Amino acid sequence: MAAFAAEEFKVGGYDGWRQPSTNESEMYSHWASKQRFHIGDSLGFEYKNDSVLMVDKWGYYHCNLSHPISVFKDRNTVVNLERPGPVYFVSRDPDHCKNGQRLMVEVIVPYRSPQPYMDASPGPAPAPFSGAGSFSVVQELVFLYVFVIAVSINM
After folding, report:
1. Which domains does the chain have, with CATH numbers?
2. Which of 99, 84, 106, 98 is nearest to 34 (CA)?
3. How far apart are CA 68 and CA 70, in angstroms?
4. Where would you find this protein in the cell (predicted)?
5. How far apart are CA 35 and CA 92, in angstroms?
């Protein structure tokens, strides 16, 4: 089984959680699109004179701050990603949100290499390949091919 190491992502990279300037309103979308977020990872929000709200999809797209799922205002918030699917965050300041200070991340299940299937019950060995059955399959495929060509020509 492949080992999985949880990662903490600093939201926004070096700039942290802040209101984007006029020409960078998509900065958080761009930042998130370059990351892969897995269950067990966390998001670190660093900010001053602001806060972070976890909201639903409606709250994210409409900057509706009236029913947040969670409110964080400790200037250094770490949110653990605990289930797959989208997770939405916005600034508590409605103008900041409308100017692009909002983040949606898609959380995925960590990839684990599949375990080989082992049947512990003894049983008969599989039959060796027999070419006799393959002839009828070839005949059926040839018939299907000829049928498709004939239908195509008549259309």
Report:
1. 8-108 (2.60.40.420)
2. 106
3. 5
4. Cell membrane
5. 24
Among residues 99, 98, 82, 102, the alpha carbon closest in space to that of 90 is found at: 102
Contact between residue 48 and residue 75 where contact means Cβ atoms under 8 Å apart: yes
Closest CA to 8 of 73, 83, 80: 80
User: Per-residue confidence of the chain (155 residues) as pLDDT tens digits?
Assistant: 455 678 999 999 888 999 999 889 999 999 999 999 999 999 999 999 899 999 999 999 999 999 999 999 999 999 999 999 999 999 999 999 999 999 999 999 986 655 555 555 555 555 544 444 444 444 554 444 444 444 445 55
pTM: 0.69
Maximum CA extent, the chain: 78
The answer to whether the beta carbons of residues 38 and 107 sit under 8 Å apart is yes
Tokens 């080992």: give the residue. 3
- Contacts with 42 (C-beta within 8 Å, 6 or more apart), sequence order: 6, 7, 8, 9, 78, 79, 80, 81
| DSSP structural state of residue 100 | T
